[in-house]
Q: What sequence folds into this?
């Protein structure tokens, strides 16, 4: 990717057909991924009567690939056309989800099947997420990264609205196979869209012998650890994702069992952050340039966590409770997305093209790699302390993320994106 605007790049980002194809494909894939994140746990809870420990295990297995494969995915994507990775992972996830209707047809659907499907979808999702972040940097000029991220994350936010609502409703109204098949359709849609991307990507190549994968992984790790901004992003992400995974495990039990909400209402509650996140994407294109990237990140992260403290105090399954859930999740979604888009723009701007995949993977490893442990902790908190107390403790843990940002170089970032640093090949 050129460091200055390419003469062949359309004046408007939306006039670029390859960006539109990436956007459509990413939107469809995120919709499928969001549906899976809700349908698999709800199938376990509602259809298989899973315990808190079993639900925590299911979520941990789904999230474990981030810890196990992120670093490998980063080194792998940096040497390949991201379009091919996106297409392959979309096809693989659609195929894996067909195991649920097949198992159902033969009377074999149970926790073991869900665990295998969750792990497979999780592995392929790791490679997809690294590849689509790298793909944006290869297709879009540097001065349009914030706009590109805003568009992609806005579509991911829209998927957060439709995916959980679709998954929750289908599990509630229909059978497990229908719920699983609904997600597979969107991965196929993404496959078709991304496969049509035409632009040849600039992929880093060694001039001499091919460097071993473990050395490329090590170079990416050293680059992140040695850069104060990227190191702070990784630490804040680790604190957030660990506590968020614990919170979500308890939350998925809290909604139907403590509040008594039906599956459709659970889907509405889980979808509520989506509209807020769309607003957050819009704000992310404006607020950092006005108030500074550091101020926006720290303030929005703190507000996102503070509003969640209202959740353990809710009671009952009436209209007022559902409305309060929607309001809290809307604010959380807006603030969380504002942080997410802003952090991604900073990370992409400061990272050389040749190491983009490894930096994404390293930060995912440090952050999302903590989610399996957080999910297991959430199951333990629910069993040992009860749903309300467990939820409160998990939410309090999430406040460590904005605190770590406030004590790091991130808070000093101004109104302009930082310049890229020299990095490894």
A:
């Amino acid at each position: 990717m050129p460091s200055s605007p390419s003469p062949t790049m359309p004046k408007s980002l939306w006039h670029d057909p390859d960006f539109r194809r990436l956007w459509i494909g990413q939107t469809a894939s995120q919709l499928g991924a969001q549906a899976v994140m809700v349908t698999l746990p709800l199938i376990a809870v509602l259809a298989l009567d899973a315990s808190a420990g079993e639900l925590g295990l299911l979520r941990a297995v789904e999230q474990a690939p981030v810890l196990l494969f992120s670093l490998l995915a980063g080194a792998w994507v940096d040497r390949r056309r991201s379009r091919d990775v996106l297409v392959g992972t979309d096809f693989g996830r659609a195929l894996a989800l067909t195991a649920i209707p097949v198992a159902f047809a033969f009377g074999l659907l149970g926790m073991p099947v869900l665990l295998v499907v969750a792990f497979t979808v999780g592995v392929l999702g790791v490679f997809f997420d690294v590849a689509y972040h790298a793909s944006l940097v290869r297709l879009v000029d540097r001065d349009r990264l914030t706009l590109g991220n805003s568009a992609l994350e806005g579509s991911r936010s829209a998927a957060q609205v439709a995916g959980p609502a679709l998954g929750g409703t289908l599990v509630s109204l229909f059978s497990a196979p229908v719920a699983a098949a609904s997600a597979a359709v969107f991965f196929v849609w993404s496959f078709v869209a991304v496969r049509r991307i035409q632009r040849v990507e600039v992929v880093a190549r060694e001039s001499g012998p091919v460097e071993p994968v473990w050395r490329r992984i090590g170079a990416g790790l050293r680059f992140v650890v040695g850069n104060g901004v990227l190191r702070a992003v990784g630490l804040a992400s680790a604190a957030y994702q660990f506590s968020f995974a614990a919170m979500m495990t308890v939350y998925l039990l809290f909604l139907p069992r403590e509040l008594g909400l039906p599956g459709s209402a659970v889907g509405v509650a889980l979808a509520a952050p989506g509209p807020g996140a769309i607003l957050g994407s819009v704000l992310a294109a404006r607020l950092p340039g006005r108030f500074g990237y550091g101020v926006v990140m720290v303030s929005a992260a703190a507000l996102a966590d503070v509003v969640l403290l209202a959740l353990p105090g809710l009671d009952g399954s009436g209209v007022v409770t559902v409305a309060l859930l929607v309001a809290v999740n809307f604010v959380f979604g807006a603030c969380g997305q504002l942080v997410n888009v802003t952090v991604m723009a900073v990370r992409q701007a400061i990272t050389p093209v040749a190491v983009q995949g490894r930096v994404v993977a390293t930060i995912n490893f440090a952050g999302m790699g903590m989610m399996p442990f957080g999910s297991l902790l959430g199951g333990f908190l629910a069993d040992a302390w009860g749903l309300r107390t467990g939820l409160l403790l998990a939410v309090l843990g999430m406040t460590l993320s904005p605190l770590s940002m406030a004590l790091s170089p991130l808070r000093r970032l101004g109104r302009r994106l930082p310049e890229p640093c020299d990095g490894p090949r």
